[in-house]
């Protein structure tokens, strides 16, 4: 498994891929939301076009990305007891169905956390995810990876969402 790393002004994108270059999963996030999308647009030819070609072959992944993109664009600020300016945000983590439950997601998440801890002054990272019974496996995944439930909110029109936060510690390597 190989990891591709891109860090452009406080934004990070990691991809897990096989030696055959088939993408197994990816994670992306930023310490500074407003710059993330402008940097991502600048990198489209070198990063997103190969990723999109791979994703277009997989209808389920494409649907998840469209839903997540809409979610990001329409997200309301959550009422949280954590100051989100002190934390980087994970925008998306996805693993190919064939690589599911083989440690790819945890390796991506751990590598992302390591990169963010040593490249920023943030206290940790957070992710926003759906809070419903069909998303239990995702919520359990974040809990297993030491994320703590921070708050809940309703996103338009009636989508229940939760924020999970990971706090950096000195024990991580």
UniProtKB/TrEMBL annotation:
A Pfam family of this chain: Acetyltransf_7
Annotated ranges, domain N-acetyltransferase: 84-148
CDD domains reported for this sequence: NAT_SF
Superkingdom as given in the UniProt entry: Bacteria
Protein name: GNAT family N-acetyltransferase
Organism the protein comes from: Candidatus Thiothrix anitrata
Lineage: Bacteria, Pseudomonadati, Pseudomonadota, Gammaproteobacteria, Thiotrichales
